[in-house]
Amino acid sequence: MAGEDKPVRLFKALMHPARLEILDVLRDGEQCVCHIEAMLGLRQAYISQQLSVLRDVGLVQDRRDGWNIYYRVADRQVYAIIDAARRMTGAPMTGSGRSLPAQTDARGQATGPASGKSAACPCPRCNPVESRPSGSGRSLTEPASTLV
């Protein structure tokens, strides 16, 4: 009976709508917690609680990079289970059917899921900040050869 525990735990973890939404966000690859928060519009503490359940059953793995924690799906076969359940029930194949709000930045440019960046996510991957040394007119990422 011990072998039955793993499938039961897996399906219990997949029963929660927020966990399915989190897994859908992770379909595109590794994401930071703040990005998941911005994409779903849920509180960070709630998302972390759901990620903990997913991690405990082995569905996601995490890694820390400075202040940010990034999550990724441990085994992409989980999407075959999720997609099969959606086909059986007639549910939308991508996401939970929740429409994410359209977002724009201060310049009116699109942000959010379709653009690959989120205005509400402060992580360096979503919102890279160009550092400028004081007194210099160039960014640290600009090649020195362009200055004359």
Task: Describe this protein with a few key phrases.
two-stranded antiparallel ribbon, globular, Arc Repressor Mutant, subunit A, 148 residues, 5 helices, disordered C terminus, alpha+beta
Short description:
By secondary structure, the chain is an alpha+beta fold.
Radius of gyration: 19 Å
Question: Main β-sheet: number of strands, strand sense, barrel status?
Answer: 3 strands, antiparallel
Overall CATH architecture of the domain at 2-99: Orthogonal Bundle
How much of the sequence lies in strands comes to 5-15%
Helix content: 25-40%
Determine the N-to-C terminus distance. 74 Å
For the biggest β-sheet, the strand order reads: 1-3-2
Structure description:
The chain has helices spanning 2-14, 17-25, 33-40, 44-56, 78-89, and strands spanning 31-32, 60-65, 68-73, 103-104, 110-111. With 148 residues, it is α+β, with helices and mostly antiparallel strands. The protein has a domain at 2-99: Winged helix-like DNA-binding domain superfamily/Winged helix DNA-binding domain (Arc Repressor Mutant, subunit A). A 3-stranded antiparallel beta sheet has the order 1-3-2. A two-stranded antiparallel sheet has the order 4-5. Strand 4 (103-104) and strand 5 (110-111) form a beta hairpin. The chain starts with a helix and ends in a 37-residue tail after the last strand. Residues 96-117 and 135-148 have low confidence and may be disordered.
